[in-house]
Amino acid sequence: MKKPIVIIGAGFTGLAAAYEIAHRGMPVVVLEETGSIGGLAASFEINGQKIEKFYHHLFNSDQYVIELINELGCRDNLLFSPTATAIYLNNKFFKLSTPLDLLRFSALNILDRIRLGLLVLKARRVKNWQPLDALTAEQWLIELCGRNVYKTVWEPLLRGKFGPYAGQISAVWIWNKLVLRGGSRNKAGGETLAYYRGGFGMLAETIAEKIKSAGGVIHTSSPAREIIVENGCVKAVKTPDAVFDAQAVIATPALPVIADLLSPHVSGEYLNKLRAVKYLANVCLVLELNNRLSDFYWLNVAEPDFPFVGIIEHTNFQSPQNYGNRHIVYLSKYLKSSDEMYRMSPGQVAELSLPYIKRMFPHFDDSWIHRYYVWKTLYAQPVVSRSYSQIIPPSQTPIKGFHIATMAQIYPEDRGINYAVRQGRQIAGI
Predict the structure, then answer these.
(1) What's the CA gap between 138 and 50, in Å, rounded?
(2) Predicted confidence band of residue 91 (pLDDT cuts 50, 70, 90)
(3) Which of 339, 288, 290 is nearest to 314 (CA)?
(4) To which H or E segment does residue 282 belong?
(5) Which of 131, 150, 184, 366 makes a 20 to 30 Å CA pair with 170?
């Protein structure tokens, strides 16, 4: 019997790779460390309805995941909804959903409002990202819209997202964000985003069922602890409970995890490349409320002392009726894993965050909280620094048959389900 291709990780990259391999009639085994599939889109339940631990949506331009959804015969599960965006700055809310909102953005003078509004148009005219690779986001944004716009709007957001790394972030990263958001706007300038009916966990389960029906196998709670290498070629993957023979291996976790797997067998430049990419962790407080918090789906928080950089009110995007008429709000914080907040208990995270919610929303009351959840992940966001293209490790490792496909390698794009699907299907062609 032919040995399978073993895939480490059942996020969307691993699932897409396994789907592609299984439907070519090749044996495939997926090993997932946690008890559930979906990676950063893994779900939990509120009133019997699956919902992501960390907020997710799709853009209109997310062609790779939309193509896969069409292949699965699930197009009717794609739900497109208009969304409202705002920024909280200087203790005020500024709606930024349409060009008219931008003209009313009184945090900037009228000339700077125009500069900010033209930024997306200028970004979309950039077709070759490579000249931006040598620039920081700060350098490029100041060049395009001026220092005042940068200091007022972009610097607080970059610091909220990347903390001590904000000044190092590549111009390519912010360029890609501007192009994505600009491409999701309708003719009137408003933004329309997509969600998967029942949550992206349901999409992951649908892909998993297709893998299984084609003969593939998925093992959860099966962390890859060791690889067996003979004469420079990968032969098997060990978990705490079993050894899985392999004709090839595709590893999809974060680069430091892969480095630990490879370190007994690889040294030198390639291992250094794996360890060169830094990551930020994430703490996500999810509130299940009896009342709506705001009118916005996406609220950027440009206040550096706040313990979160974004408030994403999911039920201003999807109906609260899906969740027993509860209003679901995500409060997201990117941080170093060594930061105190990452080590806090769920109760401590909530205790830290709620005073700031009350500061933003004086009408908010603790009695609104039906329940809260705190989710953490160690490798949430690669730090996409200037000249990032020069430190990305290649997919082919020095070990024959051992390949890697991670969210740190999709540059110039940023992480997300869409590019995870693209990457998984591409790496499946090994």
Answers:
(1) 39
(2) very high
(3) 288
(4) strand 279-289
(5) 184
What does the DSSP 8-state code read for residue 67?
H
Query: What's the pLDDT band for 189 if we cut at 50, 70, 90?
Result: low
- Residue 360 CA neighbour count, 13 Å, CB half: 24
Is the same domain home to 398 and 269?
A: yes
Chain centroid to CA 139: 25
Q: Does some domain include residue 61?
A: no
What pLDDT was estimated at residue 267? 84
Looking at every residue in the chain, the average pLDDT score rounds to 95
Angle (nearest 5°) at CA 414 between 226 and 255: 15
Q: Which helix (H) or strand (E) holds 88?
A: strand 85-89
pLDDT per residue as tens digits for the range 32-44: 999 999 999 999 9
Residue 375 has pLDDT above 60, yes or no: yes
**pTM higher than 0.85:** yes
Half-sphere exposure of residue 92, counting CA atoms within 13 Å on the CB side? 10
**Locate tokens 């290498």: which residue?**
229
Domain boundary among 157, 192, 227: 192
| CA proximity to 86, closest of 340, 293, 394 | 293
What does residue 169 show for φ and ψ, rounded to 5 degrees? -65, 140
Whole-number Å distance between alpha carbons of 313 and 299: 8
Rounded distance, CA 215 to CA 422, Å? 22
DSSP-derived pairing of the beta strands 28-31 and 217-219: parallel
d(CA 326, CA 25) in angstroms, rounded, equals 44
137 and 172 Cβ atoms separated by less than 8 Å: no
Full domain range(s) for residue 186: 82-192
The crossing angle, in degrees rounded to 10, of helices 269-276 and 255-262 is 150
- 74 located within any domain: no
155 inside domain = yes
Question: Structural domain tally of the chain?
Answer: 3
Confidence label for 120 from pLDDT (cuts 50, 70 and 90): confident
Structure tokens at 140: 């490029």
Q: What percent of the chain has pLDDT above 70?
A: 98
Give me the CATH number covering residue 364: 3.90.660.20
